[in-house]
Please model this.
Amino acid sequence: MSDVLLKVENLKTHFFLDDGVVPAVDGVSFHLNRGETLAVVGESGSGKSITSLSIMRLIPNPPGRIVGGNIQFAGKNLLKLSEKEMREIRGNRISMIFQEPMTSLNPVYRVGDQISEALINHQGLKKKEAMEKAIEMLRLTGIPSPEKRAYDFPHQMSGGMRQRVMIAMALACRPELLIADEPTTALDVTIQAQILELMQELKEQLNTAIIMITHDLAVVAEMADRAVVMYCGKVVEEAPVEELFEKPLHPYTKGLLASIPRVEEEMEKLYQIEGTVPNLMHLPRGCAFAPRCPEAGSRCLGARPQLTPVSPTRKVSCWLVEGGVD
Model:
């Protein structure tokens, strides 16, 4: 049996607005092995979250639509499945920790009931058993007095606690694939470490694969085996994490890594990538990063580079590694 659990090929998810078409995800390809952690990194607006929502088939339509590509999960093309078949996979075989817990939790149901629902629907547990399991999951995620908190409504909890409820809900059915969209954003450093450790334990115990969507490169260094760097809806670099940190190839990746503060170095001012992410409806003709790139040449402004293998484990989309920029 192949070790590849998920294979995304040339995925395109566009949003059809009154002003025009937004290619939020534009030809994204990557794979994920069983038991592996893949980090998807990039600035806000790079297409990270839309890629994950596309895998879950949760793109709001209208205005969004998956217009091309394939998403193979455990040998099945998720884009060919009916909504009923997808519901059997979501929350069971594939779970997602969403970025905004207050908008993801139902405000009129107690949090314990919301965790129990997936266990009742997917694992056939009785209501009492499901609630006991929900309380156990809340305890695992570091919520104090979980026996009481399970009967709270979302508005009675802090942002950090709601995030832990979301994590408990996602892990309850012991999924084969866990998609974590900025899972520790609302948490303090201590709880963040506990949550990352919990996810790591799940990965080791159950061979769960994880897609970690984050802009926190410290989390990438700690958690991930490989990383995919996205910019303007495209993958610009893919590499094992150690190689990526040791020798980034794409100027955008170099900029992201250079902007991390380092304890051993004294610096008056943190490095920042100049400029802003371009409007996806009006992308430049050549490389989308060229207007912000300190190494751009005439070739970068005229033609768009393709994601090209540069070693058995690395790919990059840049003219610098394809014969020069001029």
